[in-house]
Amino acid sequence: MRSAVLAAGGGILLLGAGSILLISRLDPEPVATGGPPAVLSPAPSNGAQTGGSPAASLSAPPGPGAPSATAPGVLVPGAVPLDPGPAAAPADRQRLRATAARRLPQATATPVAAAGPATPEPPRPEMPPAPDPAAWAQVPVVSPFGAGTPAPAVTRELGRLRPELSACFGRESQARYARLGAAFSRAPGSPPATPPSGPAMLLLEVESDGQVMQVLDAPVEIRGGASDATLSCAQAVLRGARLAVPSQGQARFRMRFQLKP
Does the global pTM surpass 0.70? Predict the structure, then answer.
């Protein structure tokens, strides 16, 4: 009789322990381990095993280390990954950011040409003063090769000024004298407009200073295709030029001079 009572008591203890174990597994609140609660989810139906009726099965949710579908850093096909956040491992953060850099369009900077040194402005030239045109209106015009006058010798001496006159057609002189505009003088009675072609014709005003012949001015008679800068430059070269020609015969005259490169 005593043995039967002890056996019954042991069975009751085993039944109570099993009930406690089952209740602890089904309890949604963690007891001692701090782990996630169990989730009761329907298991797929299987006619052979369950007789065609749905059954419930216990399944554990993802552990604390497994990312959720909406957690930062989860790669979704066709999407740009988000920042994995500070909790991700450094290697994972680097990998995800590298993937995002490959998918995002890269901004390219437009190269800017380096500005070179500013070109200094050419100095403003000084034009020698011109004599009064009215004082030369009645002075005779002689041929550059007229016999009995100093004109042929003057023509030869003007050849020494050809390099300076040719430089008036160059880029540097054009830039300098363009700052003066139409600063050149015109011969009395010269046409206001001529065809813009051919060489310019200057009417030199030559006078003796008692020792040599000197060009006082070179007003424009026909400008041809010469620019304002070229004409102003040529007059700056010719005005006041002293020629190694002795004063003889006619002490004052005008003669034509063709301006060309």
Answer: no
Which H or E element spans position 22? helix 2-26
Rounded Cα distance between 189 and 192, Å, is 9
Strands 220-222 vs 200-208: parallel, antiparallel or unpaired: antiparallel
Contact in structure between 182 and 228 (CB atoms under 8 Å): yes
The amino acid occupying position 249 is G
Over residues 33-54, the pLDDT tens digits come to 444 444 444 444 444 444 444 4
Q: Is 252 helix (H, G, I), strand (E, B) or coil?
A: strand
In degrees and rounded to multiples of 5, residue 155 shows phi and psi of -60, -40
Which residues is 204 bridged to in the sheet?
Answer: 255
Is the Cβ–Cβ distance between 144 and 229 less than 8 Å?
Answer: no
How far is residue 177's CA from residue 127's CA, in Å, rounded to a whole number? Answer: 10
- Report which secondary-structure segment, H or E, holds 212: strand 212-217
